Amino acid sequence: MGPARQALRAATQESHDRLDKAAVLQPLVRPDITKQEYVRALAVLYGFNAPVERALGQGAARLALLREDLRALGADPDALPEMTGLPPLDSAPARLAARYVLDGSAHGGRAMLPGITRALGYDARRGARFLASDGLDMAEAWKALMVRLEEELADPAALAAACATAAGLFAALERWTAEQRLGEQRG
Ligand code: HEM
Questions:
Q1: Contact in structure between 124 and 132 (CB atoms under 8 Å)
Q2: Quick one: CA dihedral 78, 62, 86, 47, positive or negative?
Q3: DSSP bridge pairs for 127
Q4: Does any ligand 1 atom lie closer than 6 A to the CB of residue 104?
Q5: How far apart are CA 85 and CA 62, in angstroms?
Q6: Is residue 102 a contact partner of residue 53, using CB atoms and an 8 Å limit?
Q7: Ligand 1 mean position, distance from CA 174 (Å)
Q8: CATH fold of 3-182, please?
Q9: Which of 118, 120, 144, 157 has the highest CB neighbour number within 10 Å of its CB?
Q10: Which of 109, 96, 118 is nearest to 136 (CA)?
Q11: How far apart are CA 133 and CA 128, in angstroms?
Q12: Distance between Cα 103 and ligand 1 center (Å)
């Protein structure tokens, strides 16, 4: 693992560990997850992925899978709330960091898939195409991204900007998951 990825991982690890335990995301790793909890978790992830992908404007193939899953589960992605207050994604290091956060989350998605299929029957063909990154060569994309991280973030100032953005996106996502939880409790 190169120094740039190590730095990005170090800058986001604690937040990532808290997110795993976030009330609206934690059911994704529980064997007794309900359909309602699953739709809720996907809706919250949509509210994060959609504005970030839109800001990046890079095709958003994985987001299209998430929209399809939400529709297959009876939700309308266009009616879902989206996060505001994103860190600025207006520099090359910031945009690279955002890509790292989004594509990195595919790792967790694949790890969760077998449990979701066992618990709810959704899989890469229907209902869990996003978690499966169905039809997308994420391994190849990740390898190419790792090369870009080390090349384009070799300059300490660029790396610092990328780490600040990645940490800012995770912090914004933590706020977003907490807000969604509060909204749910208020009913
Ligand atoms: C219940 C929620 C989650 C679980 C269980 C989970 C689990 C995982 C797992 C197992 C990995 C692979 C770790 C490794 O290779 O060492 C991973 C990596 C990663 N996850 Fe998550 N994840 C979750 C949520 C998220 C969210 C919401 C995001 C951001 C949107 C995210 C971003 C990342 C990133 C960027 C990496 C790559 C880190 C690296 O190896 O450099 N994860 N996650």
A1: yes
A2: positive
A3: 123
A4: yes
A5: 22
A6: yes
A7: 14
A8: Heme Oxygenase; Chain A (1.20.910)
A9: 120
A10: 109
A11: 8
A12: 9
Structural domain boundaries in the chain: 3-182
Task: Quote the tokens at residue 153.
Answer: 């973030």
Q: Which two tokens stand for residue 144?
A: 């190419």
Name the amino acid, one letter, at 81: P
> CA–CA separation, 71 vs 145, rounded Å?
30
User: In terms of C-beta density within 10 A (0-12 exposed, 13-18 middle, 19 or more buried), how is residue 163 classed?
Assistant: buried
Supply 41's token pair: 């978790």
* CA 27 – CA 117 distance, rounded (Å): 13
- 110 pocket-lining for ligand 1 (C-beta < 6 Å): no
pLDDT in tens, 80-120: 999 999 999 999 999 999 999 999 999 999 999 999 999 99
Q: What percent of the chain has pLDDT over 90?
A: 93
